[in-house]
């Protein structure tokens, strides 16, 4: 068993590792560090005649040394491919010590000197031994599914493999074989102090299967000595196994003293006394071991079988019997070999004995699993029948499919398989899904439909878009625009345009559409501004797409209705009768606005809902919330079982455990109510339970079934009239699965003409909410707010108390960013940050001997622009410039070369020095690259504490910082310009505004009035840049930052900004603290002729 460190993961059949140590054959990490230093010193400076060490010829597979720009050092490499360019050759090289593929110009390639090839390649290529990928094969004709071996690993297996390796804290591998340069291993990882065999884990979870190792035919002459018989050793000799295959040619089985390996002029001397003695010792031990085992002729296997019930069944490592005599009988040897492979077959096949059906993985009874495997999962609620598609049958163009495959798109998701066909046919479609914010739900089929140009011939022959995609904000619009550019390459040119229009009339009037533009991506407000001045350009509009439709209606409901009215009037023009007209709405939540959209503006729409809790809203399920104490749940349950004599009722009661199900069943039966129960421990009763449930009920009769959540799929119930959540659902998906049991009784108001009889059969969901489910009360309230349910006042009060308690837990969290920059937070219920003033944290901090000013005028220089109104910079103190003094001292200190000492061990949150652009800075380490933290060079995420900006650097560039420099407080201060916010209810500034302000104010001296200070943040209003007029001996305002933002039309007035923050301060004790702090400042400020002047 050897300890390893994972470098790079491609899939379970290919991952790269560093062997950290197992035998004396393996060089210590320091040897590689020493080799790296020597190699860089040689290629950087010591060898002046560069042409002599440049290769005369480049070939694929050639070992060389290249310069890596990312690592900023010379590295050993192997050339994988060569491409010619205008002025040089470009080679794709694999860094054999770092497991990286990089492109390298031919001028940066050097000959590999023998001295630098003395160590084996540090990155070793591993794969899991006898572990092969599987896939789910679905036979639609036979209506069954089975797991079969596959040629490549699917994305789910790769993702799971990566996740468990990322979560592991320790890695060990057992070498089992070797093929070319790939090592076959059993990989063991430690997760939460538990050791797991990854091979077993992948097989047990049906990501892989075991295969029997291929038997190699061994020719054994009748008279042969043990030395002539090829017998696999107990473990591969590391002295041989760890050398790259390109350096192994005709290597003898056993290394003798003084062996020299030669390849392509590279000589590798392994004749050291230590290595030779170790080799002799190992083979003496093996000879002795073989002689002791000859009479047993026992052969074991190293093939591990998957665990069942936490038990791993395995055999001892391979040990081949060898005679102490000089001869081995041929018959005996063949018998031994046959027995060895029979046992390997038996051990591998033990998996099938323990798990004969590969679909059986969770331990539920056979009957339960057979029913489960025949039920389509997950569920979907449809209006109009849709046949789901696969990637092969998807209605997409060939070019688009190629682009999707190039982007590693394997199969459409469950939602995509249902929504792609109707969208590609040009139908009106509503899609509600948990991933309803994914643009790929509609982009591929829309692009395909646009290829059929014949259906647009009746439209006016003028410039104008065929498709308008309306997004909730500029950031989402930018993302969709980039996707259209990427996936539109496989189709005819559509010339998509991203249009975000500000408040300036001139901007909307002067907007020009690109010639041939057929797709526009915009926001509701921007679209209305365009329609005001360019309505004629939208006469060709055929497809109106709403992305995140529930957000659009919530934030811009009036604008959405105006857009829909315009589209409705446009499509009824006589000349457009033969042209398509389509509305597609994608979202994550059903709402009354979407119901209005389907009724008033769509024509026989297809509705696809894969989020079952949202399907319940669509189906008008009556939601009832009953608050009670946990100890009173059973009595509350009995009160809710109020059977009406008018209708037959089928009631499902869900519990979270078997014990709870048994208790509930007994309680219900004690009230003389016939009750069925179903849980995994009584799975044999499944058939009888279903027979009882499916019996036709007479008027006024009823049936009650108590079940656990894991029995929902095999029960496959869809005709329940009432669901009672005795135990709180563990997730929204479980909640939705429970509600789907009533799907036959869903009554959507979208369907016209529902009978009165159906109206009386309205499905009901009863949720018992206790103090144990307090953490979920907020989510339940948000869900109920979107229904017609009567919300108990107790629930609102209870939720308010829960939110207050959550806020109290955020005591040490930073103040909410949106609260700081705009004065409000859009949703405090889900925001992780603090929304009240904490005097302990928010006390204005000290830059030197005095705290930040809470009022008055200051001079500031911005050095880092976060967005249009949020910057980091320094306040210039007219009495004492602490930063200037610090900078001079640091420059003087680091002039001495002996003081420029790199840090050996980098620590998180520690302070260091950094030399950048002829200036020495103080930086704080925020994060270190985890995967590379044991390497010589690795990336470090740092913050410049005197400027506020964040960047990345290499660990070796960090310098030791004396304690006297560390003791000086950070000089960077956060500045926020007040009383201005983004337009159209946006929460983030458009990059166009941020770029403009960055160019305008970066590094310039400004004067500002402080209106509030909390912690390290200063709110200023106004912030101006002054220009001195030397002739007139005065200054004028060149620009006001807030006015510049408003002039661009992307910002609007926010008069309540500071008032809201001051209100929070008054609610705490900050006002008194600020007044006492203000008394320590002695700054008297006067405004004269429009500019601030400072007097002592």
From TrEMBL:
Any Gene Ontology biological process: spermatogenesis
Protein name: Putative ATP-dependent RNA helicase TDRD12
Alphabetical keyword list: ATP-binding, Developmental protein, Differentiation, Helicase, Hydrolase, Meiosis, Nucleotide-binding, Repeat, RNA-mediated gene silencing, Spermatogenesis
Signal peptide: none
EC number(s) per entry: 3.6.4.13
Coiled coil: none
Family annotation (SUPFAM superfamilies): P-loop containing nucleoside triphosphate hydrolases, Tudor/PWWP/MBT
Domain Helicase ATP-binding residue range list: 420-608
Family matches, as InterPro entries: DEAD/DEAH_box_helicase_dom, Helicase_ATP-bd, P-loop_NTPase, SNase_OB-fold_sf, Tudor, Tudor_TDRD12_rpt1
CDD domains, sorted: Tudor_TDRD12_rpt1 (cd20434), Tudor_TDRD12_rpt2 (cd20435)
Record carries keyword NAD: no
Subunit relationships: Component of a mRNP complex containing PIWIL2, TDRD1 and piRNAs. Component of the PET complex, at least composed of EXD1, PIWIL2, TDRD12 and piRNAs.
């Amino acid at each position: 068993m050897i300890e390893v460190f994972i470098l790079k993961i491609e899939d379970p059949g290919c991952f790269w590792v560093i062997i950290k140590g197992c035998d004396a054959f393996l060089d210590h990490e320091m040897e590689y560090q020493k080799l790296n230093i020597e190699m860089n010193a040689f290629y950087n400076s010591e060898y002046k005649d560069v042409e002599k060490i440049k290769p005369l010829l480049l070939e694929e597979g050639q070992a060389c040394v290249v310069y890596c720009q990312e690592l900023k050092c010379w590295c050993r490499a192997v050339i994988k491919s060569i491409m010619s360019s205008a002025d040089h050759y470009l080679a794709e090289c694999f860094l054999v010590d770092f497991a990286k593929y990089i492109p390298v110009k031919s001028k940066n390639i050097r000959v590999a000197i023998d001295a630098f090839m003395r160590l084996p390649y540090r990155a070793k290529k591993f794969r899991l031994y006898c572990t092969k990928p599987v896939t789910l094969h679905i036979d639609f004709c036979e209506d069954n599914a089975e797991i079969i071996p596959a040629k490549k690993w699917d994305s789910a297996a790769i993702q799971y493999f990566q996740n468990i390796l990322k979560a592991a804290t320790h890695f060990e591998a057992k070498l089992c074989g070797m093929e070319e340069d790939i090592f076959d291993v059993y990989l063991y990882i430690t997760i939460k102090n538990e050791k797991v065999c990854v091979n077993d884990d992948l097989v047990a979870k049906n990501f892989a299967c075991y295969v029997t190792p291929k038997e190699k035919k061994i020719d054994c002459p009748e008279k042969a000595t043990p030395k002539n018989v090829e017998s696999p050793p107990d473990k591969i000799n590391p002295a041989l196994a760890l050398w790259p295959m390109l350096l192994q040619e005709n290597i003898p089985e056993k290394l003798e003293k003084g062996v020299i390996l030669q390849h392509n002029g590279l000589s590798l001397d392994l004749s050291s006394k230590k290595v030779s003695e170790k080799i002799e010792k190992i083979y003496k031990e093996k000879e002795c071991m073989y002689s002791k085992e000859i009479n047993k002729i026992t052969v074991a296997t190293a093939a591990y079988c998957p665990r069942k019930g936490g038990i791993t069944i395995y055999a001892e490592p391979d040990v081949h019997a060898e005679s102490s005599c000089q001869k081995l009988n041929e018959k005996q040897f063949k018998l031994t070999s046959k027995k060895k492979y029979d046992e390997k077959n038996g051990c591998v096949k033990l998996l099938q004995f323990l798990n004969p059906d590969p679909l059986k993985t969770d331990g539920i009874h056979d009957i339960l699993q057979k029913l489960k495997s025949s039920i389509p999962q997950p569920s979907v609620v449809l209006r109009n029948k849709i046949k789901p598609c696969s990637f092969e049958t998807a209605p997409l163009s060939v070019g688009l499919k190629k682009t999707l495959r190039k982007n590693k798109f394997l199969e459409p998701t469950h939602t995509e398989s249902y929504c792609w066909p109707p969208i590609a046919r040009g139908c009106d479609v509503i899609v509600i899904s948990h991933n309803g914010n994914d643009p790929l739900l509609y982009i591929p089929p829309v692009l395909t439909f646009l290829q059929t140009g014949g259906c647009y011939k009746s439209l006016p022959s003028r410039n104008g878009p065929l498709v308008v995609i309306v997004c909730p904000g500029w950031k989402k619009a930018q993302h969709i625009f980039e996707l259209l550019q990427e996936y539109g390459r496989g189709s005819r040119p559509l010339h998509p345009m991203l249009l975000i229009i500000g408040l300036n009339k001139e901007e909307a009037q002067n907007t020009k559409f690109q010639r041939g533009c057929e797709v526009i991506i915009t926001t509701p407000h921007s679209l209305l501004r365009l329609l005001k001045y360019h309505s004629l350009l939208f006469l060709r509009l055929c497809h109106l797409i709403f992305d995140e439709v529930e957000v659009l209606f919530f934030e811009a409901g009036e604008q959405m209705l105006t857009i829909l009215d315009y589209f409705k009037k446009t499509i009824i023009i006589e000349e457009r009768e033969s042209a398509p007209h389509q509305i597609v709405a994608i979202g994550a939540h059903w709402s009354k606005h979407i119901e209005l959209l389907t009724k008033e503006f769509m024509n026989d729409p297809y509705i696809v809902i894969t989020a079952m809790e949202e399907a319940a809203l669509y189906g008008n399920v009556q939601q009832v919330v009953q608050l009670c104490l946990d100890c009173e749940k059973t009595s509350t349950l009995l009160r809710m079982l109020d059977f009406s004599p008018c209708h037959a009722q089928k009631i499902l009661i869900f519990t979270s455990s078997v014990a709870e199900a048994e208790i509930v069943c007994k309680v219900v039966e004690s009230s003389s109510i016939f009750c069925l129960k179903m849980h995994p421990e009584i799975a044999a009763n499944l058939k009888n339970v279903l027979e009882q449930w499916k019996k036709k009920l007479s008027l006024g009769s009823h049936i009650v079934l108590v079940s656990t959540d894991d029995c929902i799929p095999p029960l496959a119930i869809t005709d329940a009239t009432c669901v009672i959540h005795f135990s709180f659902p563990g997730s929204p998906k479980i909640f939705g699965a429970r509600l789907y049991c009533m799907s036959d009784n869903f009554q959507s108001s979208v369907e016209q003409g529902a009978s009165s009889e159906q109206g009386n059969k309205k499905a009901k969901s009863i949720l018992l909410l206790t103090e144990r489910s307090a953490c979920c009360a907020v989510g339940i309230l948000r869900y109920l707010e979107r229904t017609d349910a009567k919300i108990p006042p107790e629930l609102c009060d209870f939720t308010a108390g829960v939110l207050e308690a959550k806020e109290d837990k955020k005591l040490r969290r930073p103040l909410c960013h949106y609260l700081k920059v705009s004065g409000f937070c859009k949703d405090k219920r889900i925001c992780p940050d603090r929304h009240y003033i904490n005097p302990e944290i928010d006390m204005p901090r000290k830059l030197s001997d005095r705290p930040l000013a809470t009022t008055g005028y200051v001079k500031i220089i911005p050095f880092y622009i976060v967005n249009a109104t949020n910057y980091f910079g320094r306040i210039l103190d007219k009495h004492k410039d602490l930063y200037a003094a610090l900078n001079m001292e640091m420059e003087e200190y680091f002039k001495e070369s002996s003081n420029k000492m790199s840090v050996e061990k980098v620590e998180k949150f520690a302070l260091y020095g950094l030399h950048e652009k002829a200036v020495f800075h103080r930086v704080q380490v925020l994060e270190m690259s985890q995967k590379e933290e044991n390497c010589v060079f690795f990336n470090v995420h740092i913050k410049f504490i005197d400027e506020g900006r964040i960047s990345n650097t290499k660990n070796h560039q960090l310098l030791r910082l004396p304690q006297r420099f560390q003791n000086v407080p950070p000089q960077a201060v956060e500045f926020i310009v007040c009383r201005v916010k983004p337009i159209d209810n946006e929460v983030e500034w458009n990059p166009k505004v941020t770029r403009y302000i960055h160019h305008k104010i970066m590094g310039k001296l400004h004067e500002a009035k402080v209106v509030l200070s909390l912690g390290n943040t200063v709110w200023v209003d106004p912030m101006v840049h002054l220009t001195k007029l030397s002739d007139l001996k005065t200054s004028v305002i060149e620009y006001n930052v807030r006015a510049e933002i408003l002039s661009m039309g992307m910002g609007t007035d926010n008069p309540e900004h500071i008032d809201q923050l001051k209100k929070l301060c008054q609610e705490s004790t900050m006002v008194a603290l600020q007044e006492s702090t203000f008394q320590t400042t002695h700054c008297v400020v006067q405004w004269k002729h429009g500019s601030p002047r400072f007097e002592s």
